[in-house]
Amino acid sequence: MAYVERELKAGDTAVARLVVLNPRGEIPAPPTLAIAPRSLPLDGKKIVLVDNGKFGANNFLAALADLLEAKYPTATVVMYPKPAAQTITNLPNWYPTVRQQGDLFLFGVGD
Amino acid sequence: MPGIYFITSEFLSDAKSAAKDAGMPGIRIVTLPAGRYYRSRASKEEAEPLAKGCFDSLIEALTRPLTLEEAKPSPIGIEREDGTIRVPGEGFLSAFEKLNELFLANRWADGLPIVPPTRELVDAMLAGTTRSPEEVIGQVAPKKGTATVEKIATNAVMAGAKPEYFPVILAAMEGFTDKNYDLTHVQASTGSFTPVVIVDGPIAEELGFNSSIGMLGHGWRANSTVGRALRLSLLNIGQTWPQVNDMALTGRLEAYTFFTFAEDTARSPWEPYHVSVGFQPEDSTVTVATSVSSPTLFGGGAVMPWTGQGVIDSIVARIKGAGVVWPHSQTYILVLHPDCAIDLAQHGYSRKSLQEHLYEQTRVPYEKVAGPVFFGHDNEIDFIRASIADGRIRVGRAQVFLDALKPGGRIPVVQSPSDFHIVVAGGSPGYDLLFSYPGTNWANQTKRISGATLTAAGRR
Asked: Which of B178, B291, B403, B415 fits B435 for a cystine, CB–CB 3.0-4.6 Å?
């Protein structure tokens, strides 16, 4: 992040200057990952709808499932709910299982 | 696996920030208008217009070929936050004012004036500990900011803390960054969770922490500035900001200092809290915990008569009647004012027997927890079974719940009696406080205070 630093300039009449330390923590760089290539078209694909467990996400995804099935009758739409929204212990093991459910995923609905 | 994420509009910046933190800044997002989504999600029929409205965007996001940047994204660089900042003014007060404007504009402050963290003041803060300025205390969620001793000292100066408080602040930061404390939830969740910070042992009195009338209020520099130093450290080292990646909907109810107080070990009839969780009496400790909101008050204060048993009965009734949807994963901090604790002790309660009494009396009949819940489960019973399966219910406690999951069974509201954390503090007269948090396995961390140079306690 660029500082909004105020530098002294020629002609500046400042007679006091506070020199202070940066309070922010250094953020280590994560490995940068690309998103998966898109595979056209959706016909014949198995589409996985991941309900993140927030109230009403299942209703929204169910409405989307109807639209997807109507537009892509040869596609298969499956619901695959996340086990619980609040867990931190199990999700690293659970997320890879989404890949085993189909070809594409839709995840929602994030606050 | 190709995919897309649905996000409501108010959370778009939060989602992008989280995606970058995870190293995948290019995730494809379909945004739903927040104002409509939250009012039309109660049924599939109500959600249909929203689904239709985003359908073309969804298909486009799922099928549009990747751009070159998406296929091979530019590496995310390390975000260095070092060096010094120079702020000029016509005089000290002018520079001080400009410094405060600058820090708030940069999102480095909490909205109240800060003490300028000059090299001299930071060095004076560092003199309060034997620990090296370069020592890494931990990584602060959500951005995994590196919390060195010097960075924490910089924030402690800004908060107005005294150097002798610094070992307490460092120990609390050890708790917040412990892998078993869910700091991301506390820092970013819409739930507006507020940390609770409890100091125990001889250092509490030596530093002048308030544990009596007004203990959660203003007027005691130790309570106020230790709490504020933690507030600023979490904000600056974890790099959070409201409406960006801190989505606490109301803001925290103790936004500037958290709930920071000391246990009154002198007036407690029982061993100090930190001794009850395995520390030595001569140790000084700090416990960091989480509360969903302000505590619930019990007892009569200066207004009404009370009895210790009456207070406990009221707490039991409150917990059982709350309709809590996570009876298996709550944790509670019960702060008894000394007179109440003494009354309970005179009626035969130890801390342990009181924990066991609360555990037994708050059990909820099986038939009353079978109501619908969200978070992906049709009812509470399914949720508990899933929690046993995925390990959220601790090893050794699962059988208790399995035995209770049948007609006539009584399901505990916590996993074990020790999930009622009982602390003695408050005035005479006083109220009794109940903090709660739905996350037993990652709610409380107690750390020993060490490395102090300016106090008799907290040195080893």
From this structure: B291
DSSP type of residue A61: H
- Cα(B10)–Cα(B243) distance, rounded to whole angstroms? 8
Query: What amino acid is encoded at B221 in this protein?
Result: R
- In the DSSP assignment, the letter for residue B391 is T
Across the interface, whether the CB atoms of B5 and A84 are under 8 A apart is answered no
List beta partners, residue B148.
B136
Residue B219 confidence (pLDDT) above 80: yes
Mean pLDDT over B208-221 rounds to: 97
* CB pair distance less than 8 Å for B81 and A27: yes
| CA dist A8 → A22, A86, B27, B97 (Å) | 18, 50, 42, 16
Q: Which residues of A touch B441 (CB under 8 A)?
A: 89
Best interface-test mutation with A: which of B72, B374, B415, B441 has the largest number of A CBs within 10 A?
Answer: B374
CB contact under 8 A, A1 and B79: yes
- ipTM for the whole complex: 0.91
Q: How many angstroms separate the CA of residue B285 from the nearest CA in chain A?
A: 25
Q: Do B390 and A83 touch (CB under 8 A)?
A: yes
Exposure pattern of B243-274 as b/e (b: 16+ CB <10 Å)?
eebbbbeeebbbbebbbbbbbbbebbbbebbb
Helix, strand, coil content of chain B in percent (nearest 5): 40, 15, 45
pLDDT of residue A7 exceeding 80: no
What whole-number percentage of chain B has pLDDT above 90? 82
- Residue B434 neighbours by CB under 8 Å, 6+ apart: B295, B296, B298, B315, B318, B332, B333, B334, B335
Tell me the nearest-neighbour CA distance from B422 into chain A, angstroms.
Answer: 25
Mean pLDDT of B424-439: 94
Tell me, yes or no, if the pTM score tops 0.90: yes
Segment B72-79 mean pLDDT: 89
